C-alpha cells in the first residue's frame, strides 16, 4: 500500500468515527452533547486536512526522486502480534505460570532471538522475577488460572 | 515554606532514598539501551509503583526519567547510536572522542554536564513551581478551559511531524476521554451498551499500550543488526577543574535552554539537545572543533537534555499540562493514586508534590554517583539482542495493565491501543498528543460546562477574562502557524519589507 493510500485510509477511518460519534451525540442531553459535537466537527475538518496534506506532499514528492526505505518483516510482525493476542486470551483461563514461559520460549524461538536453551533459561528466570516483583514484593494480583 | 521542608524531610526517608536510587539506576540502564525510550520505561514501571506510597512511587518514576537522560549518552558515545532521541546530538562529538581513546572522558563530561543541567532545572522547578502554583490557584473554570485548550494545541502543533496530525491525535484523545458517565448530566456517553465503557477508558491502560507495544513491534520488524564494536573505557572519567572551567559557560547556557524547552509542552529532550548544541557552536570561538571530538559539544547537548526534566515538570505539576510524553506518563502515575492533575497538586497534595520536586533534585546526585559506578556495567546491557527484549516488554505490558484493575478486559484494551499506536507510528501520527488529550479531556469538559453555566450559555465568557483571552489567542496562533495561511502572511510581510 502506498503512502497516499495509507493516509487516505486513516483519514477515512477517523472521518467515519467522528460522524458515528456526532450522530450518537443526539441521544445525549444538550449539556453532555455540546463538547463531543464540537470535537467531532474538529476531527472531521482535521481528517480531511490530513488527506489534503498527504495528497499535496505526494504530488510534490513525485517530482523529486523516490526515496528507498529499509524493508520491514511484515509477516513476522503479524505472527508476533497474533502471539500477543493469543497470550492475552489464554492467560486468564490457563494461568500466568503456564502461558508466560510458553509465550517467551515460543516467541524467542520464532524470532530466532537466541539459542533455545538460553531462551528457556530467560523465560523461566523472567517468569519467576515478575512473580516475585508483582505478587511477593508489591502484593499485586496476577492471573493464576489453573494454579489458583 | 513549611511544605517545602516537609517534602525534604519526606524524601530523605530510607525507603524513598532507596526508590530514588533504584529508579535512577534503572533509568541509566534503560537509557543506555538503543530501542528503549524513557517514556516506555516509565509506562512499564508505572504499575510497579501502584503498590507504593504515592510520593515514593512518583519519585521513582521521575528519577528514572532523569537517569535515562544520562543513560542515552552511553550508547551515543560508545556505539554511535543514541540510547534515547534526547542523546542524538551527543553522538556528534561523543563518538569521535571515543574513537580517539577518550571514551571515559566523554562519558565523564556527559555525566558532569547532566548533573549541572539537572540541578539547575531542579532549582528552577523548586522556585518557579510554587509561584506559578499560587497563580494557578486563582484560576477559575474559565481559565482552566483556556489552559486545557492551549495545552492540547501546543503539544499537537509542536510534536514531531505534521501539526495537523498532532492536533488530530490530541482531539481524538479528548474524544476518548469523554467516553463513560457524563459527570454533569449523569448519562452514559458513547458507551454503546457496553458495561466496561461506563467507567470510561483508563488512560493509564491506553498509555501503557501506546508507548510500549509499538516499541516492541518495531524491535521485531528488523533483524538484529550486527552490533558495532563497543569502544572500551580506558581513560579517567571525571574532567579536571580546568576542563570544567573552560566549558562551564556552555553548560550553564545549555541548562537554561533545556529548562525553557522543557517548559513548552510538546518539546522535550530531543529538541533541547540540538538547540543546546547549536547555540554552543554559535557562541564558540572554536567553531571548527565541534564535530571532531570536542568535549564542549558533549557538555552542551547533555546539560540541555537533563535540564528538560525539571522544566517539563513545571507545567505538569502546577497546571496539570504535561510538558513532554514522559511527564504525561508521570502524571498518569499520580492519577493511578487518585490524584487529579491541576492546581490542587500544589495545595491538597503538596506533600507528594514537594517530595517529587526534592526527589528530582536528589536523583541528580544519585545519577552522578551511580553513573561513575554503573556506566561500565551499562555497556554490557547494550549487548542484549532486541529480539529478546521484545517478548519481555510484552510480558511487562500485559502483567502491568492487568494489575491496575485486576481485569483482563483492560489487557485487551491495552493491546488494542498498542496496535493503534503502531499504525499511528507508521503514518507518522504522534501518540503523545493523544495521551495528553485523554488526560485533559475531563478537565476541558468540566471547566467548559461550569463556565457556560456561569454565563447562561454564552461562549463570550472565555474572552471576557484577560488570562483566558490571552491563552486562547496563543492557542489560536499555535494552530494558525500550522496552516498555509501563516506561510502566505509571512511571504507577504517579507515582500513588503523588501
TrEMBL record, chain A:
InterPro entries registered for this protein in UniProt: DUF1468
Keywords of the record: Membrane, Transmembrane, Transmembrane helix
Origin: domain of life: Bacteria
Coiled coil: none
Domain DUF1468, residue spans: 11-143
One Pfam family in the UniProt entry: TctB
UniProt key word Transmembrane: yes
Transmembrane annotation, as ranges: 35-52, 73-90, 96-113, 120-142
Protein name: Tripartite tricarboxylate transporter TctB family protein
Annotated organism of origin: Desulfosporosinus lacus DSM 15449
TrEMBL record, chain B:
UniProt key word Membrane: yes
Domain DUF112: 17-435
InterPro entries attached to this UniProt entry: DUF112_TM
Origin superkingdom: Bacteria
Keyword Nuclease among record annotations: no
Transmembrane segments: 15-46, 58-79, 106-129, 135-155, 167-184, 196-213, 319-339, 351-372, 384-402, 468-489
Keywords from the named record: Membrane, Transmembrane, Transmembrane helix
Protein name (record): Putative tricarboxylic transport membrane protein
Amino acid at each position: 500500500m502506498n503512502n497516499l493510500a495509507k493516509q487516505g485510509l486513516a483519514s477515512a477511518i477517523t472521518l467515519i468515527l467522528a460522524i458515528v460519534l456526532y450522530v450518537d451525540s443526539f441521544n445525549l442531553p444538550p449539556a453532555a452533547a455540546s463538547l463531543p459535537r464540537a470535537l467531532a466537527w474538529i476531527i472531521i475538518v482535521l481528517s480531511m486536512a490530513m488527506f489534503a496534506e498527504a495528497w499535496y506532499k505526494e504530488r510534490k514528492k513525485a517530482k523529486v526522486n523516490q526515496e528507498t526505505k529499509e524493508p520491514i518483516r511484515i509477516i513476522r510482525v503479524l505472527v508476533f502480534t497474533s502471539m500477543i493476542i493469543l497470550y492475552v486470551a489464554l492467560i486468564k483461563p490457563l494461568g500466568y505460570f503456564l502461558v508466560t514461559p510458553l509465550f517467551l520460549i515460543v516467541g524467542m524461538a520464532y524470532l530466532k532471538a537466541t539459542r533455545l536453551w538460553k531462551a528457556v533459561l530467560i523465560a523461566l528466570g523472567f517468569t519467576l522475577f515478575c512473580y516475585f516483583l508483582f505478587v511477593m514484593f508489591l502484593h499485586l494480583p496476577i492471573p493464576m488460572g489453573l494454579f489458583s | 515554606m513549611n511544605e517545602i521542608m516537609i517534602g525534604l524531610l519526606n524524601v530523605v526517608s530510607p525507603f524513598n532514598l532507596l526508590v530514588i536510587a533504584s529508579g535512577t539506576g534503572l533509568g541509566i540502564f534503560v537509557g543506555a539501551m538503543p530501542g528503549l525510550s524513557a517514556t516506555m520505561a516509565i509506562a512499564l514501571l508505572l504499575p510497579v509503583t501502584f503498590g507504593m506510597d504515592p510520593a515514593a512511587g512518583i519519585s521513582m518514576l521521575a528519577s528514572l526519567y532523569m537517569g535515562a537522560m544520562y543513560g542515552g549518552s552511553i550508547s551515543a558515545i560508545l556505539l554511535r547510536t543514541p540510547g534515547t532521541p534526547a542523546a542524538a546530538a551527543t553522538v556528534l562529538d561523543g563518538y569521535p572522542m571515543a574513537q580517539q581513546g577518550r571514551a571515559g572522558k566523554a562519558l565523564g563530561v556527559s555525566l558532569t554536564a547532566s548533573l549541572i543541567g539537572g540541578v539547575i532545572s531542579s532549582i528552577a522547578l523548586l522556585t518557579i513551581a510554587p509561584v506559578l502554583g499560587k497563580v494557578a490557584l486563582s484560576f477559575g473554570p474559565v481559565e482552566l478551559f483556556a489552559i486545557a485548550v492551549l495545552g492540547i494545541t501546543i503539544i499537537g502543533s509542536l510534536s514531531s511531524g505534521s501539526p495537523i496530525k498532532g492536533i488530530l491525535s490530541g482531539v481524538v484523545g479528548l474524544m476518548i476521554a469523554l467516553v463513560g458517565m457524563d459527570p454533569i448530566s449523569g448519562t452514559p456517553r458513547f458507551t454503546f451498551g457496553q458495561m466496561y465503557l461506563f467507567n470510561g477508558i483508563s488512560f493509564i491502560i491506553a498509555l501503557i499500550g501506546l508507548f510500549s507495544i509499538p516499541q516492541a513491534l518495531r524491535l521485531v520488524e528488523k533483524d538484529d543488526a550486527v552490533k558495532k564494536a563497543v569502544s572500551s573505557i580506558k581513560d579517567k572519567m571525571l574532567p579536571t577543574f580546568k576542563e570544567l572551567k573552560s566549558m562551564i559557560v556552555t553548560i550553564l547556557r545549555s541548562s537554561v535552554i533545556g529548562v525553557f524547552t522543557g517548559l513548552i509542552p510538546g518539546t522535550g529532550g530531543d529538541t533541547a539537545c540540538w538547540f543546546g548544541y547549536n547555540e554552543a557552536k554559535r557562541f564558540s570561538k572554536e567553531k571548527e572543533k565541534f564535530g571532531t571530538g570536542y568535549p564542549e559539544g558533549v557538555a552542551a547537548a547533555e546539560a540541555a537534555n537533563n535540564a528538560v526534566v525539571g522544566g517539563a515538570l513545571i507545567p505538569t505539576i502546577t497546571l496539570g499540562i504535561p510538558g513532554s510524553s514522559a511527564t504525561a506518563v508521570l502524571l498518569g502515575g499520580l492519577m493511578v493514586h487518585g490524584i487529579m492533575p491541576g492546581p490542587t497538586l500544589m495545595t491538597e497534595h503538596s506533600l507528594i508534590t514537594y517530595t517529587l520536586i526534592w526527589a528530582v533534585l536528589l536523583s541528580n546526585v544519585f545519577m552522578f554517583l551511580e553513573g561513575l559506578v554503573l556506566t561500565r556495567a551499562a555497556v554490557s546491557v547494550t549487548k542484549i539482542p532486541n529480539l529478546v527484549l521484545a517478548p519481555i516488554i510484552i510480558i511487562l505490558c500485559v502483567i502491568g495493565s492487568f494489575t491496575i484493575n485486576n481485569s483482563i478486559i483492560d489487557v485487551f484494551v491495552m493491546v488494542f491501543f498498542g496496535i493503534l499506536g503502531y499504525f499511528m507510528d507508521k503514518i507518522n501520527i504522534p501518540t503523545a498528543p493523544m495521551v495528553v488529550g485523554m488526560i485533559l479531556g475531563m478537565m476541558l469538559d468540566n471547566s467548559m460546562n461550569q463556565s457556560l453555566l456561569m454565563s447562561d450559555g454564552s461562549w463570550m465568557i472565555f474572552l471576557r477574562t484577560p488570562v483566558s483571552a490571552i491563552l486562547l489567542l496563543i492557542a489560536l496562533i499555535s494552530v494558525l502557524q500550522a496552516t498555509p495561511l501563516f506561510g502566505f502572511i509571512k511571504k507577504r510581510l517579507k515582500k513588503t519589507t523588501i
